[in-house]
TrEMBL record, chain A:
It is found in: Cell membrane. The chain crosses the membrane at residues 12-30, 98-119, 131-155, 175-197, 286-308. The keyword Transport applies. It is a multi-pass membrane protein. Keywords: Cell membrane, Membrane, Transmembrane, Transmembrane helix, Transport. CDD domains: TM_PBP2. This is ABC transporter permease. It comes from the Bacteria.
Automatic annotation (TrEMBL), chain B:
InterPro entries: Peptide/Ni-bd, SBP_5, SBP_5_dom. Residues 1-22 form the signal peptide. It comes from Plastoroseomonas hellenica. Residues 66-421 form the Solute-binding protein family domain. It is found in: Periplasm. This is ABC transporter substrate-binding protein. Its main location: periplasm. The keyword NADP does not apply. Belongs to the bacterial solute-binding protein 5 family. Keywords: Signal.
Length: 315, 501
């Protein structure tokens, strides 16, 4: 087990090196001169432009810029945001809990809706409950986030006045305020994932229910409840967990549109604003942090497989 | 008995005052400001926040007159020497006194700090001297009619020397100035919180305890925040929002004329990207004549904006009267093309920022100029990339705008003078250069006005160096509970005298 873990961690290092090169390289391909954007309306002054380039090392060769950045990152220094001059590490730490809270709530909503609906629709195949569940899933998957978001704001904030239309209050500041500011974006995000989870749970359950061991279990006279919940579901959950961790990772990478609509100051908003403002240190820092989160999550997924399916532990 | 009544009255007055003082204002911003250091910042939206934090030597009023703020007055000792007297008893948020030394420190900081965006604005300064603790003298290299106006913006903001020295380049994380509110906290992209500064020199006119600025970039959501009373003030709303807001009994719409303009930059001679046909002023004039500005305004902006032919908006005292946009004249445009000897259709490309409204404008122009013999191709481009193309000359025409400055020089010189920084079309005419130089240093208002009229006649009417299309309006929407908002064409939200009912 420990050997396996060590091997997995060793694989991470080259991945991260490759990734850092890619992040840096891709960014250089972005059109638009960062000095011009940073100079704003002062861009007419060549002195201002030269000064910005010198200060941010933009006038040095690419490999020098790259090594300078990587060297700093290794020592834990992610640099400063060019736009607001705050340390990137602080921005990441500031936004991570926000995104984590939003992602967790969205994921919880998705699991609470998606998995039971998937089971229900598999056990009631081709009956009204199945059709209804499929209809709801289709709605969740196909509804564009920005449309659903705006509609919810209009209904719950403008018409009914129940929830604040946008913004964010940290959990530590006021629990209920925090939940009330994040519940709408969490639902918008969660509804799409719930649909995907439902479809996958349904498919996996249908496969599991047609297996020999399930027939055996039924033949032994076990109740349908035990057959479904104990025998079929446990096996059906493995692909669902894989998918779940990927979706959760995607949520942590920042729900760009949803965060933009609800003005949730999370990862998605941070990176979008940074890209449009050519704030390279922030883009680099956030993408790297996201990559690390993904690597961590795939490790968690592997560990979860083992918890669900004992046979994998011997492998 | 009388004394008891008096006591009760005083108590009631105190309670009322406290109630009034406990008012909080929430302002929804269109973007997240950049760093809050007057020397290093460059975004327009940041200037809105400075209205709470940092007072300036001078301010402008609704007629764009320069009025004293931290200064009490000024005298031009000669065309190159400006003497400014300062307000007595002004404190910075850290308790330090604002005086001549602080003014000299702040101006020098603007001039010498690495990365200063103010240097080019006040580069005319040759020397700054302390005359007495409340008087400074500024010597300029050349006479400058525009100089005073620059002190009404960030270049005129005075920071606490002690705090600035201590914080160095991190001053923007906790700015200490002499504005009506002091900085409390900032969470990037979330909020900027400011709190009433009890020692503010003009405190009788301040009625809020807290002012919170929240960036809400999505227009629909900013409006929803206003409708649901989550904010009291939304700045730079869209023309589409106006009708919705007018239907609501709790909201008031205040359209404010802007200082800038929107128009088409033409690449006349900037690199290989220029379209050879557009070197000929007749072709440019034909393009101009094919455009119906009023129709664009109606179709895209619900008639909210002001069609124009010049960079100086009606709000500007130097706005050239009798210089209305030409009526659309397709026949004349076709005749001009024939005169210029070009074969139509003339293929032209226009770079358009990737915003829904500007893309729509592009499409309307495309349809209009087709009738006159132009085949216009639109290139919708993200703003940063478009900017780079325009600087490098990799464009033919560019639909773009300028936020505008108080002084007319700020809307003309940089864009029209041969070799100037933002003359991205490389327009050049020695006569226009001479007039621009003269207007810069002319201190007599009437003579200066005549100079700008001549500049418009040559650079715009004859040469069509750029095509100016319209002046936007800063559309402000606020709660009807809010009173005392004074619209000023710079679109900044001055907090003096504002209060909630």
């Amino acid at each position: 087990m420990l050997v396996w873990l060590a091997r997995r961690l060793a694989q991470v290092v080259p991945t991260l090196i490759l990734l850092s090169v890619m992040i840096f390289g891709l960014q250089q391909l972005m059109p638009g001169d960062p000095a011009l954007i940073l100079a704003g309306e002062e861009r007419g002054d060549p002195q201002v432009l030269a000064q910005i380039r010198a200060e941010l090392w933009l006038d040095r060769p690419l490999h020098v810029q790259y090594l300078h950045w990587v060297g700093n990152v290794v020592t834990g220094d992610f640099g400063f945001s060019w736009r607001i001059r705050e340390p990137v590490a602080r921005l990441i730490l500031q936004k991570l809990p926000v995104t984590f809270q939003l992602a967790s709530m969205a994921f919880l909503i998705a699991v609470l809706i998606g998995v039971p609906m998937g089971i229900l629709s598999a056990t009631h195949r081709d009956r009204p409950a199945d059709w209804l569940a499929n209809g709801i899933a289709l709605f969740g998957i196909s509804m564009p986030n920005f449309w659903l978001g705006i509609m919810m704001i209009l209904l719950f904030s403008v018409q009914l006045g129940w929830l604040p239309p946008s913004g964010y209050v940290p959990l530590t500041e006021d629990f209920w305020q925090s939940v009330s500011t994040t519940i709408m974006p969490a639902f918008v995000l969660g509804s799409g994932i719930a649909g995907v989870l439902m479809r996958h749970t349904r498919a996996a359950m249908l496969t599991a229910l047609s297996q020999d061991y399930v027939r055996t279990a039924r033949a032994k006279g076990l109740t349908e409840r035990v057959v479904v919940w104990k025998h079929a579901l446990r096996n059906a959950l493995i692909p669902v967990v894989t998918l779940g961790t990927i979706e959760f990772g995607r949520l942590l990478a920042g729900a760009v549109l949803t965060e933009q609509i609800f003005t949730i100051p999370g990862f998605g908003k941070l990176i979008v604003d940074a890209v449009f403002n050519r704030d390279y240190p922030v883009v680099q820092g956030v993408v790297l942090a996201t990559a690390l989160i993904f690597v961590g999550l795939s490790l968690v997924a592997d560990l979860l497989y083992m918890a669900i399916n004992p046979r994998l532990r011997q492998a | 008995m009388m004394r008891r009544w008096k006591a009760a009255f005083v108590l009631a007055a105190l309670l009322a005052a406290q109630g009034a003082a406990a008012q909080n204002l929430r302002i929804g911003l269109r973007e997240d400001p950049d760093i809050l250091d007057p020397t290093l910042s460059r975004t327009y939206v940041g200037r809105i926040v400075y209205m709470a934090l940092c007072d300036k030597l001078f301010d402008i009023n609704e007629r764009l007159d320069v009025v004293p703020q931290l200064a009490t007055g000024y005298v031009w000792e000669d065309p190159k020497t400006l003497r400014i007297t300062l307000r007595d008893g002004v404190q910075f948020h850290d308790g330090e006194r604002m005086n001549a030394e602080a003014v000299v420190y702040s101006l020098n900081r603007h001039l010498t700090m690495q990365g200063s965006f103010r240097r080019s604005e006040i580069s005319e300064i040759e020397a700054i001297e302390i005359v007495d603790p409340l008087t400074v003298r500024i010597r300029l290299k050349n006479p400058s009619a525009a100089f005073l106006a620059t002190l009404t913006d960030r270049a005129g903001m005075i920071v606490s020397p002690r705090a600035a020295e201590a914080a160095g380049r991190n001053f923007g994380a906790n700015p200490v100035c002499a504005g009506p509110f002091r900085f409390v906290e900032r969470i990037a992209q979330e909020r900027i919180v400011t709190e009433r500064f009890e020692q503010y020199w003009d405190r009788a006119r301040i009625h809020f305890q807290r002012v919170t600025y929240t960036p809400i970039p999505d227009n629909n959501v900013r409006l929803a925040n206003l409708q649901s009373n989550a904010i009291e003030f939304g700045e730079r709303m869209e023309p589409d929002d106006v009708r919705t807001a007018q239907r609501s009994r709790n909201l008031r719409v205040v359209p404010v004329e802007e200082l800038g303009y929107q128009g088409i930059t033409i690449n006349i001679a900037n690199g290989s990207g220029a379209n050879p046909a557009f070197r000929d002023a007749r072709v440019r004039r034909a393009f101009d004549l094919a455009i119906d500005r009023a129709a664009i305004n109606q179709v895209v902006y619900e008639g909210m904006y002001t069609p124009t032919r010049q960079p100086l908006p009606p709000a500007n005292p130097y706005h050239v009267r009798d210089f209305a946009p030409p009526a659309r004249d397709v026949a004349r445009a076709r005749a001009l093309l024939r005169e210029a000897g070009v074969t139509s259709p003339v293929a032209i490309e226009m770079t358009v920022p990737n915003n829904p409204d500007l893309r729509q404008v592009g499409e309307v122009i495309q349809a209009m100029v087709r009738e006159a013999g132009f085949e216009l191709r639109l290139r919708a481009t993200e703003y940063a990339s478009a900017l780079q193309s325009s600087v490098r000359g990799e464009y033919q025409t560019f639909l773009t705008g300028w936020s505008g400055r108080t002084d007319p020089d700020g809307n003309t010189y940089q864009f029209m003078r041969t070799g100037a920084g933002q003359n991205e079309g490389r327009y050049s005419n020695p006569e226009a250069d001479r007039l621009l130089d003269a207007a810069r240093t002319e201190l007599d208002v009437e003579r200066r006005r005549a100079l700008y009229a001549d500049i418009m006649r040559i650079a715009v009417a004859e040469d069509v160096s750029r095509i100016y299309l319209w002046h936007r309006k800063n559309i402000m929407i606020h709660s009807t509970r809010l009173i005392g908002y004074l619209p000023v064409p710079d679109g900044l939200v001055r907090l003096q005298d504002m209060r909630l009912q």
